[in-house]
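From the shared-data thread, chain only:
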Amino acid sequence: MPSKNPITVHIPNTKPIKIHIPPAFRHHNTQIKTFLLRNKQYSGVAVASFIFYPLKAHIRAPTPFSSPNNRTIGSNAPSNTQTEPAQLPLVQRTRTHITSNRWEVPWGISDKLDDPTYLHTVAKKTFEVTGLRVRRFLRQIGDGEEFTTSEGTGLRLHFEVEAAELADVGKTLECPGLGQVHVELDPDEHQEFVWATEDDIIGDIFPAVSPQQKEVMLRAFQLRRGDEEERRALVVKASREQRQAGLEACYARDLGEDDDDGGEEKDDEQREEGADLFKLPVKKSRLSLRKVR
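Structure, as tokens:
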């Protein structure tokens, strides 16, 4: 559900970005100065964005099955297989960077003067690093990780977000797949971009900039799997309820047809018996008349 008061992020040379903030994120929507005053052990705040595709965990639609009388009454359990695995965008550091050729999620340090809140920073840094526009915050991943800066110790917070550019992937001719999603990198910071799966992260196909970064990536995929399992459970429950309702409807219909057939036979018998009873007195009356004569 869209938030009543979305935040607006202003980025140079592009339209302002309006982002929906869920109620659970209200405590994040505070000024950076205020956050640092409350957490004096930190000299700065950094944020990272995790953008999954598909936008939602996809459970393959249940397949219909038939009752003994060939009526389609419900569905089998949904498939455990996704049509497309969850993927996460990673960017590769340039060869001249201290973590050269290593991979990371889009992130950046909040500007204490220009960024009203670090939620604004998430949208701004995501756009600066990838050109993707954040449209919704979904959740925070973990409690954050500390990192060293020239001013002391900073705290990096991780957020799962939705990007507006992914909403139409696979739904339009202009964007039939992820390959058509335009990603624009800053050549001074990053040299490559890739959509990575959980297996890619586990197998170090795209080595992370640090063990901590890899750990957070895997944690994000773990939360994603939790969403899939929860959604699968709901689909299974709905499928079973549909099946039970279908069975009950079929049995009720069959019983109704049997009752109708039985009722017609009973009516016929009653009509025949009634006719016989009617004829019997008539015959007797004729005999009695003959005797009188």
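The two ends are 99 Å apart (CA to CA).
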